[in-house]
């Protein structure tokens, strides 16, 4: 027999994990489906060493520690967690929805989509020598373990929150950190920009990377050019970290037999996180509504809204929500 769940959550990043926890609080039979080999989404796969500042109660928390704490949180309830199982199809059936992964088919009365920005691919550095340096391990797009760059001269390329976070993250361990951005102004949060300017990170703006090569002693020779000028300069570093953001790929969602209304590629939702398809809700960075802010903290707020709406609408006979202080007592 095909297993049937009350709620199926597609996407095991921090927001999806919190939704699964909250579904456990409401005693819903829940499965959590993640396409990667482990839970945590982009935070775990790309930024495990990143310091996250927008989680209430934590002045600062590393990405990997946040995901580990959420795994502990999930362990309080008998949830079904399936990793390395991308959802290849979602379609409506008489009893709700049929969900297909490479491992098989399950059914669910309701669905919460928490896939963030979809499959993510780093925006590449398109200059001569980049591919060769990446193969040699001197150019990277994420830092799973900052100890890999201990004592190194590191160039971080980018001007958003992630680039600033990476530069500040590496400052205590690297020999030196240079942050190069093509504009004078950074796109990061004002507080993070203040921390950057107060740090020992060398800020070089407005500059572009024009080429990359290795030196005879194995270092990296970065050719840079000031924007609006022709004269080139050279930076000698050990490693280059490119932080230009990511491109999103929604081809998996778009291939499902069930389509939800979209606005600029994001899923449009109501205040309850309901989509245009009854029984399907969406939360996290992949959704849009007036005033939406793509923060982890925002996703954490959206998760209980979706779960409570599902329980009140589709399972009105279930007991009312318990308080968080009841857990463990």
From TrEMBL:
<feature type="binding site">
    <location>
        <position position="42"/>
    </location>
    <ligand>
        <name>FAD</name>
    </ligand>
</feature>
<feature type="binding site">
    <location>
        <position position="325"/>
    </location>
    <ligand>
        <name>FAD</name>
    </ligand>
</feature>
<feature type="binding site">
    <location>
        <position position="120"/>
    </location>
    <ligand>
        <name>FAD</name>
    </ligand>
</feature>
<dbReference type="InterPro" id="IPR023753">
    <property type="entry name" value="FAD/NAD-binding_dom"/>
</dbReference>
<keyword id="KW-0285">Flavoprotein</keyword>
<dbReference type="GO" id="GO:0004324">
    <property type="term" value="F:ferredoxin-NADP+ reductase activity"/>
</dbReference>
<feature type="binding site">
    <location>
        <position position="47"/>
    </location>
    <ligand>
        <name>FAD</name>
    </ligand>
</feature>
<feature type="binding site">
    <location>
        <position position="34"/>
    </location>
    <ligand>
        <name>FAD</name>
    </ligand>
</feature>
<feature type="binding site">
    <location>
        <position position="87"/>
    </location>
    <ligand>
        <name>FAD</name>
    </ligand>
</feature>
<comment type="similarity">
    <text>Belongs to the ferredoxin--NADP reductase type 2 family.</text>
</comment>
<comment type="subunit">
    <text>Homodimer.</text>
</comment>
<dbReference type="InterPro" id="IPR050097">
    <property type="entry name" value="Ferredoxin-NADP_redctase_2"/>
</dbReference>
<feature type="binding site">
    <location>
        <position position="15"/>
    </location>
    <ligand>
        <name>FAD</name>
    </ligand>
</feature>
<keyword id="KW-0521">NADP</keyword>
<keyword id="KW-0560">Oxidoreductase</keyword>
<dbReference type="GO" id="GO:0050660">
    <property type="term" value="F:flavin adenine dinucleotide binding"/>
</dbReference>
<dbReference type="InterPro" id="IPR036188">
    <property type="entry name" value="FAD/NAD-bd_sf"/>
</dbReference>
<dbReference type="GO" id="GO:0050661">
    <property type="term" value="F:NADP binding"/>
</dbReference>
<protein>
    <recommendedName>
        <fullName>Ferredoxin--NADP reductase</fullName>
        <ecNumber>1.18.1.2</ecNumber>
    </recommendedName>
</protein>
<keyword id="KW-0274">FAD</keyword>
<dbReference type="Pfam" id="PF07992">
    <property type="entry name" value="Pyr_redox_2"/>
</dbReference>
<feature type="binding site">
    <location>
        <position position="285"/>
    </location>
    <ligand>
        <name>FAD</name>
    </ligand>
</feature>
<dbReference type="InterPro" id="IPR022890">
    <property type="entry name" value="Fd--NADP_Rdtase_type_2"/>
</dbReference>
<feature type="domain" description="FAD/NAD(P)-binding">
    <location>
        <begin position="5"/>
        <end position="290"/>
    </location>
</feature>
């Amino acid at each position: 027999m095909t297993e049937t769940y009350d709620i199926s959550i597609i996407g095991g990043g921090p927001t999806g994990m919190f939704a699964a926890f909250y579904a456990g609080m409401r005693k819903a039979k829940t499965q959590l489906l993640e396409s990667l080999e482990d839970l945590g989404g982009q935070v775990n796969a790309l930024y495990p060493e990143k310091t996250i500042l927008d989680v209430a109660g934590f002045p600062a928390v590393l990405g990997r520690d946040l995901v580990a704490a959420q795994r502990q949180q999930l362990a309080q309830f008998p949830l079904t967690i399936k990793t390395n199982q991308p959802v290849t199809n979602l379609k409506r059936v008489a009893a709700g929805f049929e969900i297909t992964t490479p491992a098989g088919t399950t059914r669910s009365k309701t669905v919460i989509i928490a896939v963030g920005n979809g499959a993510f691919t780093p925006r590449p550095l398109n200059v001569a020598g980049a591919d060769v340096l990446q193969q040699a391990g001197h150019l990277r797009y994420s830092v799973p373990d900052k100890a890999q760059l201990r004592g190194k001269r590191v160039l971080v390329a980018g001007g958003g929150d992630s680039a600033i976070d990476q530069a500040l993250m590496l400052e205590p361990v690297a020999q030196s950190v240079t942050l190069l951005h093509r504009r004078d102004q950074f796109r990061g949060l004002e507080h993070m920009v203040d921390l950057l300017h107060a740090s020992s990170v060398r800020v070089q703006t407005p500059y572009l990377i024009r080429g990359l090569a290795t030196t005879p002693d194995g270092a990296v020779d970065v050719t840079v050019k000031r924007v609006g000028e022709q004269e080139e300069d050279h930076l000698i570093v050990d490693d280059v970290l490119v932080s230009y953001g990511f491109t999103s790929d929604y081809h998996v969602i778009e291939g499902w037999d069930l389509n939800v209304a979209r606005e600029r590629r994001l899923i449009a939702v109501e205040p309850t996180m309901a989509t245009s398809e009854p029984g399907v809700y969406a939360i996290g960075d992949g959704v849009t509504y007036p005033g939406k802010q793509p923060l982890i903290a925002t996703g954490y707020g959206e998760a209980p809204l979706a779960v409570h709406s599902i329980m009140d609408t589709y399972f009105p006979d279930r007991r009312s929500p318990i308080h968080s202080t009841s857990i463990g007592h």
